[in-house]
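FYI - complex with flavin-adenine dinucleotide, inputs then prediction.
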Amino acid sequence: MKVVVIGGGAAGMMAALTAAEDCRNQVTVLERQSRVGRKLLATGNGRCNLTNLHASAAHYHGQNPAFAAPALAAFSVADTLEFFRALGLLTVAEDSGRIYPFSDQANSVVDVLRFALERRGVDVRCGCEVVSVGKKARGYRVKTAETEFYGDRLIIACGGAAGGKLGGTDLGYRLLQSLGHSVTAIRPSLVQLKTDGVHGLKGVRADAGLTLKRGAAVAQTAGEVQFTDFGVSGPAVFELSREARPGDILLLDLLRPLAESDLADYLAQKRLSASSLPLEEFLTGMLHNRLGRVVLRQMGLDLSRTAGSLTDRELQAIAHTIKFFPLTVSGTLGLEQAQVTAGGVLTAEFRPDTLESRLCPGVFAAGEVLDIDGDCGGFNLQWAWSSGRLAGRLGL
Ligand SMILES: Cc1cc2nc3c(=O)[nH]c(=O)nc-3n(C[C@H](O)[C@H](O)[C@H](O)COP(=O)(O)OP(=O)(O)OC[C@H]3O[C@@H](n4cnc5c(N)ncnc54)[C@H](O)[C@@H]3O)c2cc1C
């Protein structure tokens, strides 16, 4: 059977390798960039967080996150690690469950996949952008600018629109739309947030609790927050970012270990024991110095006053601001900077047990092009591996 895989990213390479396990299949990968796995090289800050020990459907989002479950069950984290081990890739798990190549280099992941594609005789064509697909009496016609391919089976693994500089594009959505499929609204996920209130904090990191509010709380998490010149970044911010909308309030709990009342008591003791301390240094030793000053300034306090001059009411207010430090969200850095696209091709139009189109028999989709996105921590690549594996089985 002739199998054409559109997209040589994580899902496409996995799908091609799987389809090529049946030596009767003649598999071609068409990749628009000059090499396969370009985005993979940039993952995990160049280390490639290729999966997570805790991967389960609970870590995925979309109109129907349960759609991901059969693929994740059919090719689990353990299966993925075994698969890569057989290709020659050794991995290591961090305490958080995140898994990286032992070499700490993303190119190790790309290289073992490339070598395997070569060994299995997959025809990999780079610099080959697919511009249209169409049904024939039997199978499908695939057109690039220069030439035409024929596939009895088609696997569309063009990824999402996030990370444009690394190859993110909406072409996959458009190809599937041309076959009659629908696409949900898309938006950036795992992305930095633009906020007010961070002047002077660039480079500061804090372990914080995060609550995103739009009236009521819409999302909550905890972890490292990195302040930037435009807002906030870091793993915990990424986690909330898919829910963030302009106008939302992000409340940071900057001293998680202490309840607000205990913090107020502690500050009252400090007012006594360090009464001559200028307010500028009042929070030194509790928070990053710069963060402490921004908290006090945001409250409108004159930092040249002494700690001893603080009223009980002001002490309570400082404790409250540390526990609920508010930043107003004005937006995100957008799809260009995002790690993943929330939304995509409607999963209801595909069979979850095979990833075959319900509209076009013989067409399969895998990876980020579908309306499934994962949490930060290796879950998106696990979806690419699991869905690529399932699609590559071609419904058999
Ligand atoms: C900076 C960054 C860091 C990330 N880090 C991590 C991480 O550490 N862990 C994790 O789990 N996830 C991470 N992700 C997310 C993860 O990389 C993606 O979710 C994953 O690569 C999606 O796999 P995919 O195969 O569906 O798409 P992609 O990997 O994007 O591959 C799609 C491929 O299709 C090609 N293509 C598109 N259209 C066409 C066309 N018409 N014709 C031919 N070729 C086409 C593209 O050029 C691309 O190579 C990161 C993303 C970014 C941007």
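The chain has eleven helices and 21 strands. Residues 6-12, 30-33, 38-40, 42-44, 48-49, 129-130, 157-159, 162-163, 166-167, 169, 171-172, 339-340, 367-368, 378-381, 384 surround flavin-adenine dinucleotide (CB under 6 Å).
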